[in-house]
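Box S1 | Example of a co-folding query
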Amino acid sequence: MKILAIESSCDETSASIVEQGRNVLSLVVASQIEEHKIYGGVVPEIASRRHIESISGVVKKAIKDADLKISDINAIAVTYAPGLIGSLLVGVNFAKGLSISTGLPLVPVHHLRAHIAANYIAHKDLEPPFLCLVVSGGHSHIIEVKDYTTFNIIGKTRDDAAGEAFDKAARVMGMEYPGGVQLDIIAQKGNPYAFKLPRPKVQDSLYDFSFSGLKTAVINQIHNYNQKGELLCIEDMSASFRLAVVECLSTNFLKAAKNLGYKKLVLAGGVSANSLLRERLSEECKQNKWKLYMPPLNLCGDNAAMVGSQAYYEYLYGNIANIDLNAFATKSIDTQI
Ligand code: KG4
Ligand code: ZN
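Box S1 (continued) | Returned holo structure for zinc ion
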């Protein structure tokens, strides 16, 4: 079964053809990062307009790159939630149009489910159940993936997402959007113990995260330096901040694995590209003799291949949308459409 998948939840317009949920026949990603950089973050209105301009060409190229015709496709899949509503609507409406004109079934895919599915593409042996840490620009969740379409959230952030915290810390240190990647690179040259930063814990929860206090601590320390007219070593601050975020994420994730008895762990989402997070989790899992699956770097960020992978399992489960499918800015991973 060949699925044509579309992703437009944020600032990447992407289309992909995926066979049987695991084989990527083509993947096209048109990034808008350069344009949003000058504003220091994604401008939703601009993002929607760029999606409208590029979606048709991106989809055509995905079909052409796979050396197929639209008549070779068996279903259309699209990210319908969560994300920027204007951006999502472009993908959803385009997919609906294709579904009407071709008569092909329309498969709605949740963005975080798709991030998890990026691992099915890279690791052909990976099957649920497993415990997953999903960390992106908008979410930080610890999720029990019971089967391909059954999810149980056992921990999440109470305020900022990990990626958001990385981006904000990077921004106050003068790095370009999206700062998380830059901060990760700059941190390689710094001393992670140079600055004392908190490891915030959530009082009434074993597994929830909180990153806003950590972000404020960084901003305050930077302001103190600026007020005194002293030069801040951004390598050291980046390294200290990165260590603090990674320790918060890995501590709760590993605790959850231990307490719930999972020996199969999966990392997903844009922040799964973070080099220290990958290194830390790899070491810990090796010590515990647990199996760790991580997406390859090219599938960590937003892309339609992961949508096509998850769509296959949604289709098998019977999750087919009607033509009145809507987009949603927020929607929990454990709810059906
Ligand atoms: O999943 P994603 O591409 O988009 C959302 O669904 O939000 O995640 C983007 C987030 C951004 O906040 C970006 O800064 C962060 O992932 N990110 C990183 C790294 N690469 C991307 N954060 C830390 N270290 C990285 N290497
Ligand atoms: Zn994402």
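The beta strands are 2-7, 12-19, 23-31, 75-81, 106-110, 130-135, 140-147, 150-156, 264-268, 291-293. The chain has a mean pLDDT of 97.
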